[in-house]
């Protein structure tokens, strides 16, 4: 008797996010890989906003998933998993950047004056345009902009995360918005002419 193995070998079962998380909580290792693959693209996208080098992002994503699997028992199912994962990735990215801060050129902005609210043009740019523009920003301005405008952290939280004064976080954000505004106006002018 010949068995038809081709049908049984290629059957793949798909699982919902909740099922994957539940299986990971119960310690089933093969589901950690499935969860990793399911959220890999999302995690890389979050990491790319904070780090330029793809290898660094991959390291942060892998470190983040290690943290996820170590602490998955404490994950509260009543909150969205993506939000929990994003927070871990953001914090891991910041930790990675902090370890490499000594290589960054940091201006002393403690004595800088607060510029105030950035002009309204930034408010009218869509998210895709902003993400493209972020590459023109110095690293610290980009980091603060991401944390505040995209991920919704407060200046108090940013100051604590980056070990900078709250006023510095505000100044970095203001300078980032001003630089983005100027670049955007320049780009708009070049398209119009």
Your description of this structure?
This protein is an all-alpha fold and 193 residues long. The chain has helices at 5-9, 17-25, 29-50, 54-71, 81-99, 127-133, 139-150, 155-162, 166-192. α2 (17-25) packs across α3 (29-50) and α3 (29-50) packs across α4.
Order of SSEs: HHHHHHHHH
Measure the end-to-end span. Answer: 77 Å
Largest sheet: none
Principal-axes shape call:
elongated
Assess the beta-strand content as a share of residues: under 5%
Number of distinct helices: 9
Structural class of the helices, strands and pairings? mainly alpha
CATH topology of the largest domain: Rna Polymerase Sigma Factor, Chain: A
Count of DSSP E strands? Answer: 0
The top-level CATH class of the largest domain is Mainly Alpha
Number of domains: 2
Low-pLDDT runs of 5+ residues are 1-11, 105-119
Could you name the CATH homologous superfamily of the largest domain? RNA polymerase sigma factor, region 2, helix turn helix motif
Helix content class: 55-70%
Q: Can you describe this structure in just a few lines?
A:
Belongs to the sigma-70 factor family. ECF subfamily. This protein has 193 residues and is mostly helical. It is built from 9 helices and no strands.
Describe how the helices and strands are arranged.
Blueprint: H1 5-9, H2 17-25, H3 29-50, H4 54-71, H5 81-99, H6 127-133, H7 139-150, H8 155-162, H9 166-192
């Amino acid at each position: 008797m010949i068995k038809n193995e081709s049908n049984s070998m290629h059957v793949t079962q798909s699982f919902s996010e909740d099922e994957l998380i539940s299986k990971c909580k119960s310690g089933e290792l093969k589901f950690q890989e499935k969860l990793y693959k399911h959220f890999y693209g999302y995690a890389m996208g979050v990491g790319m906003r904070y780090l330029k080098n793809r290898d660094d992002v991959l390291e942060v994503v892998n470190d983040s998933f290690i943290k996820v699997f170590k602490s998955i028992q404490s994950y509260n199912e009543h909150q969205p998993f993506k939000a929990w994962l994003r927070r871990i990735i953001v914090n891991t990215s910041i930790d990675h950047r902090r370890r490499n801060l000594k290589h960054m050129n940091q201006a002393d902005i403690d004595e800088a004056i607060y510029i105030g609210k950035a002009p309204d043009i930034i408010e009218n740019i869509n998210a895709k345009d902003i993400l493209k523009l972020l590459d023109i920003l110095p690293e610290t301005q980009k980091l603060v902009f991401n944390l505040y405008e995209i991920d919704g952290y407060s200046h108090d939280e940013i100051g604590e995360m980056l070990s900078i004064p709250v006023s510095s976080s505000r100044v970095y954000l203001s300078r980032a918005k001003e630089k983005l505004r100027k670049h955007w106006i320049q780009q708009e002018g070049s398209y119009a002419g």
